Request: fold
Amino acid sequence: MTILRDVGKKIQTILGSVADDLGKASGFIKRTRKLTGSRFIRMLVFGWMHKPESTLEELVQSGILNNVEISAQGLDKRFTPESAHFARAVLEQAVAEAVKAPNAVPIELLNRFSIVPFI
Reply:
């Protein structure tokens, strides 16, 4: 249970304050508004986790669950080189945390699953 608790805390941090910092550092977030780095990345991650082939409208619905009010057209305009660099930076941070995890999940546990999704 400690492993799951630690993983949950790390995911919350990465999809929270770390994503906010990376959003600004990447140039994706130029000024603080309702759409923050963390809200944007959670909208995409949770939307695509629920349905990998989500449309813009479905991603917008995922955003509503994360207190993001944006139109499908507005979301479409956010898919820029800066947002790609931002998403990559969040992914790199998540992978770096997973690699250095002192209580990493034993490979035998992962072998029980046919697919292990990565965030």
Q: What stands out?
A: Residues 2-99 form one domain. The chain is about 65% helix and 0% strand. The two ends are 20 Å apart (CA to CA).
